[in-house]
Structure formats: C-alpha cells, structure tokens
Amino acid sequence: MAAGNGIAMERFEEAPQRVSGVRRFIRVFMGRKIVMFGIVVIGLLVFTAIFAPWLAPYPPNETSLRNTLAGPSSAHLLGTDSLGRDTLSRIIYGSRPGLVIGLIAVSIAAFIGMTFGLLAGFYGRMISAVIMRSMDAVMSVPMILLAVTIAALLGGGLKNVLMALGIALIPPYARLMCSQVLTVKQNDYITASRAGGATNLRIMLAHILPNCFPPLIVLMTMQIGTAILSEASLSFLGIGIKPPDAAWGSMVSEGYQNMLRAPVLSIAPGVAIMLVVFAFNMVGDGLRDALDPKLRGTL
Amino acid sequence: MAVLLEVKNLETHFKTEAGLVKAVDGISYHIHEHEIVGVVGESGCGKSVSQLSILQLIPSPPGKIAGGEVWFEGNDLLRYPANGSKMRDIRGSKISMIFQEPMTSLNPVMSINQQLSEAMQLHLGLNKADARKRAIELLKLVGIPAAESRVDDYPHQFSGGMRQRVMIAMGLSCNPRLIIADEPTTALDVTTQAVLLKLMKDMVDRFNTSLVLVTHNLGVVARYAQRIYVMYAGRIVESGTTEDIFAHPRHPYTVGLLKCVPRLDGDRNKKLVPITGLPPNLVGMPPNCAFLPRCPYRIEQCRKEPWPPLTAVRKDHEAACFVHLEDKDLGINAE
Amino acid sequence: MKELIVRRFIQSVMVVFLVTIMVFFVMRSLPGDPVLVYVSQNEVNAASPEQIAKIRHEFGLDKPVIVQYVNWLGDICRGDLGRSVIKRTSVNQEIGRALPRTIYLGSAAFVLSIILGIPLGIVAAIRRGKWEDTLCTLVANLGVTAPVFWVGIILILIFGYYLRWLPIQGWVSPGENLGDSLRHILMPVLCLTVYPMAAIARQTRSAMLEVIRQDYIRTAWAKGLAERQVITKHAVRNAIIPVITLIGMNIRQIFGGAVLTETVFSIYGMGKLSVDALFSSDYAIVQGVILVVGVVVVLSNLVVDLSYGWIDPRIRYD
Fold first, then answer.
1. Are residues B124 and B170 in the same domain?
2. Which of B225, B242, B260 corresponds to the end of one domain?
3. B27 and B93 both lie in a single domain
C-alpha cells in the first residue's frame, strides 16, 4: 500500500466530463465481473424455474424403488435419493419454491415494513417509539426461531412459510424507511412544500418515497438471498414445503440422513442454494455501489 | 544563503477515467534556508500535488511521480522507495507538512497528546513522558490555552482554528528544516487566518526553518513570502521576489490575478477584472501555452509554438511568456 | 455519555417488555387451543368437556387476556417459566440444561468470528485489488451465503468421515474432560463461526477502505510512520467502530445459527430444544426459549451499544 493511498481523487481531477446518471449507473454496475456473474446466475435461476418441466430429465416426484441412493451416473447425473427420485430434476424443480418464496416474502416484508417506517418517521415521538421498539423486539429473536415458530404453529406449507418469513423480514425496512424519513424531513424543500399546502400524504409520496428507492432496492435484493436461506433452513428442519415436493433445504435434510451412502444428495442442493444466494448478494452489492457508494458502510 | 531544497523537472501524472492528467508537468524551483516561499495558483494548477510529490505522498494507483529530481541534503529524494525508511526518516522530521482541512486532518479517536507524541517518539527518540512534556510546550507555543489539561483532549473538542494550531505544532514538533503548508488557512475565517499566518512566521523566525506557503490567496503571500512561484496548469509561469512580482508582473496570468484582488490602497471605483474563461481541462492538453484561450495579450507565436520556457524578464524574475510585457503595457508607472 | 446510558437502558427495558408481549400474544393467538400450553394433546383428547373446562379454570384461561398476561408476567419475574407438558419437567429445568451448552458453543463462535474476521477484512482492504483481496473477499462472500446446516454437513463429511479426525456427534462437558470436549465442539463451533466471521470480514474491509481515504491517514503518513503503524494505530482504531455494531447483530445471528448447528450435530442446546418442542407441540418450552433468547439478545445488544459509545471518544466525551 503506497503512502497516501486512496486520498480523495476529487481534488486532483479538473473539470470532469459530465456523464449522465443512467450511463454512469450502467457503467459502474456492469463494471464488476462478479456482479455480471450474479446477474447471469439469477437469469439462469429464473429461466430454470419457469422452464423446469422442459429442463428436468425426469419428473421430480417419480420414484423408482429399485434405484435408490444411487451415485452419479450417465442416466442420473447427480444420482438418486432414498426413493429413487432423480436428484438433478429435483434440484431444477426446487428452484421454484426458493425463488417464489424469496420474491414474495421480501415484497410482503418491504411493503409492511415501509408503511411502519413511514408512519414512525412521520408522526414522531410516541408512535415512532412504539413502532421502532417493536421492530427491535422482533429483531431480538433470531429470525430462524421466529420463522420456525410461526410457521410450525400455523402448520407448515408454502403459504405459512411465506407469512412467517414475511413477518420476520419486516424490521430492516421499517428502520430504513424511518431513518430516510427523518433525514428528508429536515430538508427545507419539505417545509416549503408544506407552506405550499401539501398534505402529509402528498409529501410522503412525492418527496420521501423517491429518495428511499436506492437503499430500498439494495436492501430488497440482499434480503432475497436471506429469504432463500431461511426458507432452506425451514425446509431442512422439516417445516415448509411439504413432501414429496422438491425443496433444496429438505433435500439436504434427506441427504443428511443418508450421508454416507449418497453424499451428493446433501452436497448438491447446498451448492445450488449457495450459488443463488451468492448471486443475489453480488447483484445487491453491485446495485449499492452503482446507486450510491456512500451506502457501503450501512447496507 | 544556501539552497535547502532543489526541485528539477518534477512531473506527476494521474490516470483518470477521462484520461491521463499531467497534474505537475515539469517544474523546477528551489528554496533557501530560512526563507518563506509562496506557491500561488488557482485550484487544480498542481500546487498541492507538487508539494505532496516532494514527500512521495501521492496515492499510487491513480498517481505516479513520472520524472524529476528533488535534491535535499545532498540526496535525490525521488530515488528513495516511497515508503522506505529513508523517506520515512525525512517525513515529519526534516520536512513536515501542514494540510488544508483542520477538521479532518486529525485522527478523531486519538488524543492530541498521542498524535503529537507519536512523531516525537519516532523521530526524536523521546519516551512517553518526555514527549508529553514537549507536546504541552508546543501547544503553549502555538497559543492553545490551558495546554496541560487540553493535551489529553480529543480533536472534536477543539475548534477549527485550534485544530490548525495543533497541526502547526505537529509540523514543528521535530524541528524540521522545511515546513510545507498547503493552504493552511483556507478553511478558516479571516481573523483566524491572520493570526495563524503570523504564528507561522514567528515560528519560522524562531526555529530557523524554511516555509513553503501554498495558496490561491495573493494577500497571504504578499505579506509573508519573500519569493513567489506562480503556477498554471501544472507549470510554473512566473517566479521572482514578492515585491517585484506585485509591482511588475510579467506573465498575463499573474497580471490577471492581480487585477482581481481588491486592494485597500487602490482606487475604490476601479472595477475588479476577472480572468475570462475557465480553468483548463488537464486531459489532452495541446502543446502550446495553456493560458492561450484566456490571454488578452496573445500573439501569433503563442498559438504556433509549444509552451514558452521560463526566461529572465527582470533581475531575479522569470516568466514563461513570448509576449514580453512591459510596465507601460500594463499601465504601471515606472518606478 | 450518561444520557446515552440512561436512554439506551430505558429503551432496552421497553424492548424486553415488548418481547414478552410478543411471545405471549403470538403464542395465544395462533390457531389451536391455548390449553395445549398447559396440557398435552393426548390429555385434551382424552378429557371430557367438563374436565377441559376445569383445566381452563385452573390455569386461568377463562380470565380476560390482559389479566392472563399480567399473571404470566408475574410468574416470569418470579423466575417461573412454566412446565413442559410433554417432558413433565419444569421449563426452567430444561432451559437450565440447554442454555449453558448454547452459550458455550455460541461464545466460542463469537470470539472466533472476531479473531478471524477482522484480520481477514483488514488484509483485504490494505491489499485492495491484489490477489489477497480477491481471495479474502471471495471467502467472505461465500461465508455469508453458505447455509449453516450445509456447512455442518460438509464439515462432518470431511473431518468426520473421510479424514476421521474428529468425532461426529456427542457432547462432552468441558468440566469433565477439556481435551475431549474441545474435540467434540470443534466442528460445531467452526460451523457456527462461518457466517459471523464472513460478515465481520466484509464490514471490516468496507470500513477500512472508507477510513484509508480519510485526511488523517494522510497526516499519519506525512509524519513518517511506517505502514504497520498507520494501519494498526490509525486506521483500524477508526474502522473498528462501525464493526462493533455488526458484532452486536451477530449475537442474534449466532443464536439463530445455533438452532441449525445443534440439529445437525445433535447437541442439546436451546436450538435443538426449541425445535424438538415445536414438533411435539410443547408450547411452554417454546415460549420459554424465545423469551430467554430474546432477553439475552436485548441485554447483549445493550452492552455492545454502550461499549460503542465508550470506545468512540466523540460520544464518550460529549
């Protein structure tokens, strides 16, 4: 590391050429190879989820009791599980619940969380205290525990997992929204807006929300990864997608029970999970750097 | 007086998104012992970069010292590895630097004592207790009240002016032979500015060091510097004694600068004349004189030939210009 | 600083309160008979309506919900977390056995994540763009994406089966035999450490990169300090401050990871206890676990926040 490495370059540049915001965004975002890798993977994921029936060599739930726990072979590229079902096909189909749950749970959490945050930031003192401390309370319980409890008590299954995750993922949005509101609220143009007769709702929608989009998008992208991981954990524990449907987490769980005979069964779905979560995280990083590098410390 | 520092053909380049920026494009100057020299120019002319280059403090991925020599105490500093022990021995002890932003130049989580003592322990070999005593003395010297109690305070507990005094104390702490002050008072209000500049002059006299004052403010150099170098677009365009440059400027840029400075002794009805045009874009500069687009005195030669070299125009006074301005051109009465 | 302490303390009390409300009302409002908290499913099935009514009355379930909450809160404060209807023991007993194991596991992971994560982040930052950075960043990014349970399984496969270096299951208390205990705990601890270590590494790298750009670092170089001093004395001290907040958040993460780690390695800590209890509808235990874990997290967050305030002189000497 050379002396003075990293001194702010702004001082040394002279009359920098103006590059439009969108072009700059694209340049920074596409600039990092790993971000592009992430986008490719996400694209593959979506493609796989949509075209699963055409991509999978076998139906995911088709059993074959003569061919259980087989290792990789030309017929079954990743082997079979304890009921003779083709692992590769199940992984392909497993992309569906993962993706769907990730997207929906995060959307639910974002919507509810943003509403809470908006209210908390806007109406101040008492309401803010109650909402924010409630968010703290939810954040004091480990997410898995919370999600597992809610999902288990509601009875498992896709819908309930969605609800459980949707609830558990709320707090970061509320906090983000609240702090954004507080920051923006102090600006003079808000006062001016009020003086011009704007209602609270209008101020919220026209001024505050647009400012929140960059960190919000980044947060949502990162959280999709978290949601997918949580869903996998839930199905690993046996809550969530009901068998015989394929879900990566429950596949790992099954592999765990047959660890010695068919290690591929536990390794492969885990790799799939990692790949997908990694992709979302990298894209989230890329979005954050492209939208506002100053967020690097906070998100 | 002997020459303390001699810079020859220093070049420092930066790779930016827009292209290669020659922030310092071949400058040569020197400083004598016990002298105050001003380096003057607008933002982006390369004055700060040139000083950072002397101590090899240029951030190395985008920047690079592309050529030149810096002679100090019989050695070319640029031959030393940037962070090697020889360079480190000089930084902070033989040549020290004071920076522009007092609010951010001090480490917020270390006490003033720790930050002052650090250099002294390193360069002077003092132990903690002695370094602390000396730190307190230095604080008193630069005019910080209640030094004994304040020495353990943290930067955020000081005002901007006080922090800059601490920086000055830090610059003096190891008895340097040369202090480089990079726009030391730009970030402060005018009163504080005056006080701190006087302080620096006093320190220079007292400790027999030399001082390089980098600034865009002509008022500062007028009062305190003995000689001035005027920089533009990475090169020195004029150099001479302060008196001579103010009374008989020879480079159109210097002339322009002087015309924009309000003077207490000037005609109150006289207009301030700004220099037309914008500072140059340092990427992809043409080979001819960089001031050409803004120069009211330009001639055909300026467009055809490469940047004019520094030539003597008066005694101990050089300018880089083909036009050879005279006093009468500028409406100055002969002395 | 004093204001900060008081304010944070009051906030923490409020949060603990809200956690109790959350636990109580969530457990009560979920579908299913609240009687199940006190009585097992079998007993409910076998009982006649009058017996059920009597049970309801006995456990105060026929009183208004608020009253029930207050009574429950009173019990909690007296230290009585209820009874496990499945295991026929007190919840205190179960938690008393499980909590130390989770704390043992979790503290080791906590400490290890800091010891490994911070240097990883620092190296990545000061060698930015070079191979050290690429490697460290890759490791950190993979670490935050790897599912905890999967990491555990991989560790078991590699170290337990193929290399046969470490035992796969079982628990030996450190009191009995420290060496054996460490051998048993090594894989679970590693498994639990991966995520927080990677998160800390990422945050440290990020914070260091931000700090290195600052003016006071340039001042440090200008004083003639060597790279090591600039990094450790000047840069790290500043970079560590935002990392402390993350370290606090990791406590919650570690408890969460423990749920999965304990399941994979069959360790009877809070995680496995709660999962087993959920599957056997032993709601009193679930309630107790969430409550205890929640309070522990709130308290440790309080400690972390206060130490943050103490370490940063801008807050301490306000």
1. yes
2. B225
3. yes
| Domain harbouring B185, CATH code | 3.40.50.300
Query: Along the 299 residues of chain A, how does pLDDT read in single tens digits?
Result: 444 444 444 344 333 444 566 777 777 777 778 888 889 999 998 888 888 888 888 887 777 777 777 777 777 777 777 777 888 888 888 888 888 888 999 999 999 998 898 888 878 788 888 898 999 999 999 988 888 888 777 776 778 888 888 988 999 999 888 888 887 777 777 777 777 777 766 766 777 777 777 888 888 998 999 999 998 998 888 887 777 778 888 888 888 888 777 788 888 889 999 999 999 999 988 888 887 665 554 54
CA distance A141 to C298: 9
Q: Which of the residues C1, C212, C219, C227 would you substitute to probe the B interface, choosing the one with the greatest number of B C-beta atoms within 10 Å?
A: C219
ipTM of the shown complex: 0.89
Give the global pTM: 0.86
User: Would you say B100 and B182 are in contact if contact means Cβ atoms under 8 Å apart?
Assistant: yes
Dihedral angle sign, alpha carbons of residues A174, A178, A184, A188? positive
Pairing state between β B178-182 and B210-215 = parallel
Q: How many other C-beta atoms are found inside a 10 Å radius of the C-beta of residue B35?
A: 20
Which of A2, A13, A15 has its CB closest to that of B59? A2
Q: How many CB pairs under 8 A join A and C?
A: 166
Specify whether B201 is located in the same domain as B263.
no
Judgement on whether residues B125 and B265 belong to the same structural domain of the protein: no
The domain in which residue B261 lies consists of: 232-330
- Which residue, of B225, B257, B278, is where some domain finishes? B225
Whether residue B172 is contained in a domain is answered as yes
Residues B276 and B255 in one domain: yes
Which chains contact C through at least 3 pairs of Cβ atoms less than 8 Å apart?
A, B
| Amino acid at residue number A30 | M
Question: Does residue C83 sit in helix, strand or coil?
Answer: strand
Query: Domain A20-59+76-295, CATH 3.30.450.20 — does that match?
Result: no
Looking up tokens 């045009």 gives: B277
Number of CB pairs, chain A paired with chain B, less than 8 A apart: 59
**Rounded to whole angstroms, how far apart are CA atoms A137 and A171?**
9
Q: Judge whether B97 and B180 are in contact, CB under 8 Å.
A: yes
Q: Does A277 touch chain C (CB under 8 A)?
A: yes
Q: How many domains does chain B have?
A: 2
Domain segments of chain A as ranges: 20-59+76-295
Contact (CB<8Å) A274/C206: no
